[in-house]
């Protein structure tokens, strides 16, 4: 499958490498697609990896991942052109974090709305599925924990798109858990804050979430 990724930071590069490792072709979209940073990523990933503009990544992908800082997400999607995403599964890996000096981040949206719902509104013709937002980028692909594979919660309105994402999560080494419609992002995005809070308290990024069943 051809995968376009809108974004070029650590999350985008880690997910892109995971898609390449599982046999997909990947195009990373960036405002600076010819940067030295992306040239190094492309060289490390081999012939199935390429870079381009946001629009080129959106056009390229049969499946598209949004992996941008929240403050730049709306602009990046405008540059990608939502028309290129109509009918496609779009994985929203963003978190609507608001930062303040010398303080823990908070949510720019929450309780009655979410970043996932906002991305769906910005891309009305796409099938948005929220996923990959509750863990550090180091563990997004084939995480290794003593207690076995952690859970990755996901949500979205289109059942076919969720089935596709479920399969991707399994191939990436996760135990997928479907939380229903895209409004489930109102729950998932605060889980990012839980992960971040524990990171600051513990000084470690080596943790993930798992639901236990009796």
Short description:
The protein has 214 residues and is of the alpha/beta class. Helices cover 37% and strands 19% of the residues.
Describe, in plain words, how this protein is organized in 3D.
The chain is an alpha/beta fold and 214 residues long. The chain is built from seven helices and ten strands. Strands 3-2-1-4-5-8-9-10 form an eight-stranded mixed beta sheet, with helices on both faces. Strands 6-7 form a two-stranded antiparallel sheet. The protein is globular, with a radius of gyration of 16 Å. The N and C termini lie far apart (38 Å).
Name some characteristics of this structure:
214 residues; alpha/beta; Rossmann fold; 8-stranded mixed beta sheet; two-stranded antiparallel sheet; globular
**Fourth-tier CATH superfamily name:** NAD(P)-binding Rossmann-like Domain
- What is the ordering of alpha helices and beta strands? EHEHEHEHEEEHEEHEH
Query: In percent terms, what proportion of residues is strand?
Result: 15-25%
Number of domains: 1
Per CATH, the class reads Alpha Beta
Distance between the termini: 38 Å
CATH architecture: 3-Layer(aba) Sandwich
The computed structural class is alpha/beta
* Overall helicity: 25-40%
Oligomer: single chain
Would you tell me the overall average pLDDT?
A: 95
Counting DSSP H or I runs of 4 or more residues, the number of helices is 7
Q: Describe the sheet with the most strands.
A: 8 strands, mixed
Strand order of the largest sheet: 3-2-1-4-5-8-9-10
Enumerate the spans where pLDDT stays under 50 for 5 or more consecutive residues. none
What's the β-strand tally? 10
- CATH T-level topology: Rossmann fold
């Amino acid at each position: 499958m051809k995968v376009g990724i809108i974004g070029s930071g650590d999350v985008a590069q880690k997910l892109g490498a995971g898609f390449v490792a599982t046999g997909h072709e990947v195009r990373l979209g960036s405002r600076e697609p010819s940067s030295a940073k992306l040239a190094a990523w492309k060289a490390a990933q081999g012939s199935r990896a390429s870079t381009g503009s946001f629009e080129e990544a959106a056009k390229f992908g049969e499946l598209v991942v949004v992996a941008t800082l929240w403050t730049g997400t709306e602009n990046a999607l405008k540059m990608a052109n939502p028309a290129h995403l109509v009918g496609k599964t779009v994985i929203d890996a963003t978190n609507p974090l608001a930062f303040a000096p010398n303080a823990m981040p908070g949510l720019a949206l929450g309780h009655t709305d979410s970043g996932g719902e906002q991305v769906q509104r910005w891309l009305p013709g796409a099938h948005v599925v929220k996923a990959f937002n509750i863990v550090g980028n180091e563990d997004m692909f084939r995480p290794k924990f003593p207690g076995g594979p952690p859970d990755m919660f996901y949500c979205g309105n289109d059942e076919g798109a969720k089935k596709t994402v479920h399969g991707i999560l399994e191939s990436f080494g996760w135990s997928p858990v479907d939380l229903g419609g895209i409004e489930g992002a109102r729950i998932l995005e605060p889980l990012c804050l839980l992960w971040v809070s524990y990171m600051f308290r513990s000084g470690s990024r080596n943790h993930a979430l798992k639901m236990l069943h009796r």
